Amino acid sequence: MGFNSNNNQNLLSKIATNNGHGENSPYFDGWKAYDSNPYHPTQNPNGVIQTGLAENELCFDLIKEWVVNNPKASICTAEGANEFKDIAIYQDYHGLPEFRKGVAKFMGKVRGDRVTFDPDRIVMSGGATGAHEMLAFCLANPGEAFLVPTPYYAGFDRDLKWRTGVELVPVVCESSNNFKVTKSALEAAFKGAKEANIKIKGLLITNPSNPLGTVLDRETLRIIVSFINEKNIHLVADEIYAATVFNQPSFISIAEIIEEIDCNRNLIHIVYSLSKDMGFPGFRVGIVYSYNDAVTSCARRMSSFGLVSTQTQHMIASMLLDDIFVEKFIAKSAERLAKRHELFTKGLAQVGIGSLKSNAGLFFWMDLRRLLEDSTFESEMALWRVIVHDVKLNVSPGSSFHCSEPGWFRVCFANMDDETMRVALRRIRSFVTAKRQCWQSNLKLSLSFRRLDDIGMAPHMMSPHSPISSPLVRART
Ligand SMILES: Cc1ncc(COP(=O)(O)O)c(C=O)c1O
């Protein structure tokens, strides 16, 4: 008797069989397209370039230099091996004191030392992913919700909702005011949730923003803190891109705002990680920093499910407590991000492709609204498919970030070398230029196919370089 996979619905839990992981979204589909045909300058020059991954690879030369100069930081070197046993055995789930000290100091440093963080409040988690889930478990019950300004990081739907049963309610922000988080948008979302009988337990902000690459200004941060105080709901501030700010205006942490205005600090929680600022997503160093004692102790107990390995803590502690290295790293990283961002966005601007003005993050928010057949998410998906499968760039469509307007795409720029970036830039530029030429000659898809018929050529026989087979024509289907 064969096994019927439909039985899984009854055999397994609701969590195991629902789609809460979100793996079927275009955000992950683009990654799959890249995985099955990755670009390589010599071995696969026509492959897909990964511009959908927010990774910071621009400063690994500095990291490598530090690692070579600090062999004692590793327990797998002749210089560090004496510590092997003490690091390998069970550790207290509070984390190594030196690690907490290093992280607290680093968090202060990337905020210009304008605020300090208490090492005793540092709680570990498996990346910011684990930190978000941990906070959701601490702050809300299944069915209760967090407000989240749009567009927001696609992973939040998985991180906050999947295993906790918590819901997310969008706060709709629009391009007309550069996606500003306004009091009226917050009030409208809160009111809408109330009318739908959804209990709002908190507001989740990402500053600097993923996907926008912008920072929240002081006035907006004050509005946000007043709003959550007034409603007596929590504020979770995801600040994992704090050190990626490469131009003015500078980053303002929520930790600074709560020093300036009266608020209930028990409602304030920061999520941090070394995945973006240091470029270490593989180390899974995530942090919950809550100003609420009860949340800190509950989260610490929960951290048993996602501790950072002691070997990693040991190495990170040495690195982050090296002031000279940290200062140099932060400055160089910002400098290189600024240069990359400028090269990419200016290169696109030359062919008329705009992007939202930004000064932070590992990506920019590309505006392709004028290339849509019509202003719908179906057209956005049609264009996205062409960009991924024909232009061979894995960009992420705005709809996967819950953007309220079709035509925006996130482009990551810090996870590749200079040459790959130039190829990516060239590909988008020629795509858009070709598309524009196509419009100028008023070439329409129907006409194209009529012409094919005229010359007795079936579509599958087209040359890969034929203008008729070019992606821009197919984008309009
Ligand atoms: C805003 C935001 N929060 C959280 C995460 C998850 O980070 P981590 O790799 O530390 O789990 C990401 C990753 O892209 C992110 O962009």
TrEMBL record:
Q: Which Pfam family name is an example for this entry?
A: Aminotran_1_2
Pathway, per Swiss-Prot/TrEMBL? Alkene biosynthesis; ethylene biosynthesis via S-adenosyl-L-methionine; ethylene from S-adenosyl-L-methionine: step 1/2
Protein biosynthesis found in the keyword field: no
The chemistry this enzyme catalyses reads: S-adenosyl-L-methionine = 1-aminocyclopropane-1-carboxylate + S-methyl-5'-thioadenosine + H(+)
For the biological process aspect of GO, one term held by this record is: ethylene biosynthetic process
Coiled-coil ranges (or none)? none
What's this protein's name?
1-aminocyclopropane-1-carboxylate synthase
Keywords for this protein: Ethylene biosynthesis, Lyase, Pyridoxal phosphate, S-adenosyl-L-methionine
